[in-house]
């Protein structure tokens, strides 16, 4: 069973972590490592470190473990020998398994099914059989499907899926899909390349127009070269790495609390949107046409910077006016922490974004896209593996648990407790923290320390109290708990934070 | 047990693969897919397809399954509950497990231990305990280690390791390590950045000198943007994707058989080396200094293009003369298929290359490097996961099996059978095939069809005979069997190929 509370036996990190770090540093650059975690003993919302300290984990491997540590339903899938084989045989994208389409339909493309559940459970149990995970049953010889899923997985309007392995290759390849779409349009849909096209691309030269993506200051889209040229979070991420002259616009920086700064923040939206559109026109006229706009629904590494639904609605319109695709990068926000599977669902966009990328909590990486973003030829969006079927298997089980345990409801309920508690602390300790923010309900919440040093002190002291959190931006503390983080965990966190703020 | 021979029941691909393809195409771009593989029933060197055909697999997921399908020792590791936890808890690079350093030392940094084995097995069994995988024992309280490993894992002279998830992020990050090394040298080792450095990198502009890597025509280093700018295999891989003006030199294209073209091939080496050095000087003087030379030991996707040990020795010297690092990309060649763990071991380089990247057969991606290629600060070579500890766990078991079953010897023995058999067929069928080539012994062998169409016909007809192979370059057929491919498998392959060539 999950521990009832944090338990701290040594300084955090303690001497054992220190010894392991010394050992690791001999063979790996480890400047960013401090704490070593015992993954065998960690459970649920609690990590156990190398010194035996039990910490409430409100950061969860940068939002990457949707169900916390060692969730029994996930451990269980490896009791099935045929699942073990999926983990052991890495398979190339060119030779999929016959169950691959079904695995995608029952995970990433999972649908809402409501009424049939009753029919299945009470009226015709003998005839229909029992299938957990609904989508799967759809594949089985026309038997109508069955369970009571409360959410639809794929963003509404996006029916095509490309799996990848991490956030960086998800974004790199989504960018490529956008370039190919843009250039195919320019060719009037023709898939014949000219000899000039062929010769120039093989020599790293672009004939005519190399398309570019527009990104935002403060953005983080990954660290491989294409991603990194759209990432503008911290200098140390970009220093010394070759980059490209691509358009970079300002992302809104709001004043908090929002209710007290409505007019300024609207003005901020307007200024930023104006700049995006101007930049696109400028780069178009410079012969560096802007094929896409790349944006996070919440700039996470950059400091949990939010923008309004209106901002995103108008950004989509700018894309339409200028012929640029809209890519929403949900690598950190996707998978439920904002109380919806996708953060951009909160924006009420009149139609789907063109591409949505994901990774982290989704376990597999990849992107959803509209049909016209599927390249017209094979081998253009391609690599050896194109993601890992074992991660899709795990995701499917995660979705079963989210559905069965109504975890999105839990996220919303816990988010309310967290947010209200933090609002009270913010009022009590204005000399330490400010700018509490979150997307509607949900646990994807952040606040700022009054200085970067104060933020760092809070994170460090929370560790000594048995609470693991993380920073982002210059002075932000972000919360990224698992979907199983419940109201009573929120209360423990708030208690410990109060202790820390009182003692500062 | 592994099937005794191929068994073909339908056309390959058959109707079931066709149905699955239709289904998959509805939700994914699948132009490069044709065959669906039943990974539950595939075993050892044989894949079973969706139509129940049993094919001898001489391609092995583009060289990615070191021990073939469903190797019992790999399946076994998931009988250990603590291993299951490693597969289920994806862990961020910032929070390693206490066993991580030991896992690296007993897999990627595994050493040769010979004599102690006897001591252990016969003299002091009670006192020392039994540890498979030697390196691990080194960690256990000073007990001297034990087993009879016949190979050393890390390339000689490279003691530092960085794990990654795939070939692309391995190369992208190895490039970054080279840029950082180069610019740090320029700063005289200082780790203080100027304000100009900071401002310009955040705006995607380089102050002074953006370093570049030199690559070769015909190379393949991956498909994310930085990798793709050093990849020059096929136009369809690069079309429409923005690239950079980086130096690209000719890679030797030899005439075969080598014995009959010694002079021409030496001349070819000389010309290519001269061009590399000229290009580096040219780009240096253009203000695009060449920080590294990126090269495969065998250009694999580009058509299995080989170069002589002398070529690589002199390339290393060019790097030294011009101040450019030498990166050898062993993503496809590494892990044993050339009869040594690393293909570049065949080159007798006077000292280690600066960086060696790997993935595929190694299961985990990553790179080995010299100490000076470790960035002086944290967060510069960084991503959420930095590889997957479950893959390192699998690699460790693969290495145990390689060692126990003497698989490198098997590769050499089987390679001899393959090569000699193919040499005979090449002499009998000069109207169909030519240019047989391989690195010393080993199974990393290729030959050309007289035309691309003929190569394609051979691959297609081999499939109907129950043999799965792959193409590369314009007209090359490449063999990439698993390390467990034995002489009797080679004989089956040679028989079937003879049948196909006779019937052409
Ligand atoms: S770039 Fe995503 S796994 Fe390597």
TrEMBL record, chains A, B:
CDD domains documented for this protein: OAT_like
Cofactor(s) recorded in Swiss-Prot or TrEMBL: pyridoxal 5'-phosphate
EC number: 2.6.1.19
GO function term, MF aspect, one: 4-aminobutyrate:2-oxoglutarate transaminase activity
Pfam families reported in the protein's UniProt record: Aminotran_3 (PF00202)
Leader peptide range in chain numbering: none
Superkingdom assignment: Eukaryota
GO cellular component: mitochondrion
Keyword RNA-binding: no
Enzyme class at the top of the EC tree: transferase
One GO biological process term: gamma-aminobutyric acid catabolic process
Gene3D superfamilies in UniProt: Aspartate Aminotransferase, domain 1, Type I PLP-dependent aspartate aminotransferase-like (Major domain)
Keyword Transmembrane among UniProt keywords: no
Keyword annotations of the record: Aminotransferase, Pyridoxal phosphate, Transferase
Family: Belongs to the class-III pyridoxal-phosphate-dependent aminotransferase family.
Name of the molecule in the record: 4-aminobutyrate--2-oxoglutarate transaminase
Upper lineage: Eukaryota, Metazoa, Ecdysozoa, Arthropoda, Crustacea
């Amino acid at each position: 069973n999950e521990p009832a509370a944090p338990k701290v036996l040594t300084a955090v990190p303690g001497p054992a972590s220190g010894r392991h770090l010394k050992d690791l540093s001999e063979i790996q650059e480890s400047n960013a490592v401090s704490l070593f975690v015992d993954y065998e003993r960690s459970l649920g919302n609690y990590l156990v470190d190398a010194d035996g300290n039990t910490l409430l984990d409100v950061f969860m491997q940068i939002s990457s473990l949707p169900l916390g540590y060692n969730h029994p339903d996930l451990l269980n899938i490896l009791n099935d020998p045929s699942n073990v084989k999926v983990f052991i045989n890495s398979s190339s994208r060119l030779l999929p398994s016959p169950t691959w389409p079904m695995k995608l339909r029952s995970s990433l493309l999972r649908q809402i099914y409501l009424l049939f559940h009753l029919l299945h459970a009470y009226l015709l149990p003998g005839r229909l059989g029992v299938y957990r995970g609904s989508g799967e049953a759809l594949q089985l010889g026309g038997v109508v499907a069955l369970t009571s899923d409360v959410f639809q997985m794929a963003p509404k309007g996006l029916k095509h899926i490309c799996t990848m392995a991490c956030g960086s290759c998800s974004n790199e390849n989504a960018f490529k899909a956008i370039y190919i779409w843009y250039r195919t349009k320019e060719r009037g849909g023709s898939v014949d390349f000219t000899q000039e096209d062929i010769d120039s691309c093989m020599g790293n030269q672009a004939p005519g127009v190399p398309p570019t993506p527009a990104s935002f200051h403060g953005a983080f889209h990954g660290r491989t070269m294409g991603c990194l040229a759209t990432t503008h979070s911290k200098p140390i991420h970009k220093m010394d790495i070759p980059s490209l002259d691509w358009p970079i616009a300002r992302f809104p920086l709001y004043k908090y609390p929002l209710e007290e700064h409505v007019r300024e923040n609207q003005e901020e939206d307007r200024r930023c949107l104006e700049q995006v559109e101007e930049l696109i026109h400028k780069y178009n006229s410079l012969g560096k046409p802007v094929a896409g706009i790349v944006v996070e629904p919440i700039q996470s590494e950059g400091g949990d910077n939010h923008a309004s639904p209106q901002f995103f609605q108008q950004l989509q319109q700018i894309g339409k006016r200028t012929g640029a695709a809209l890519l929403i990068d949900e690598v950190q926000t996707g998978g439920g922490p904002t109380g919806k599977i996708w953060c951009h669902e909160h924006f009420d966009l009149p139609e789907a974004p063109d591409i949505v990328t994901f990774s982290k909590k989704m376990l597999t990486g990849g992107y959803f896209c509209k049909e016209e973003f599927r390249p017209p030829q094979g081998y253009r969006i391609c690599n050896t593996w194109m993601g890992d079927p074992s991660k899709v298997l795990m995701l499917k089980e995660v979705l079963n648990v989210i559905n069965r345990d109504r975890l999105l409801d839990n996220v919303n309920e816990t988010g309310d407790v967290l947010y209200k508690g933090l609002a009270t602390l913010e009022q009590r300790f204005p000399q330490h923290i400010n700018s509490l923010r979150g997307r509607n309900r949900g646990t994807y919440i952040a606040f700022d320390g009054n200085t970067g040093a104060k933020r760092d002190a809070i994170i460090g002291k929370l560790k000594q109290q048995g609470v693991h959190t993380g920073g982002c931006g210059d002075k932000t503390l972000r919360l990224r708990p698992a979907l199983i983080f419940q109201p009573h965990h929120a209360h423990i966190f708030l208690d410990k934070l109060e202790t820390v703020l009182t003692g500062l």
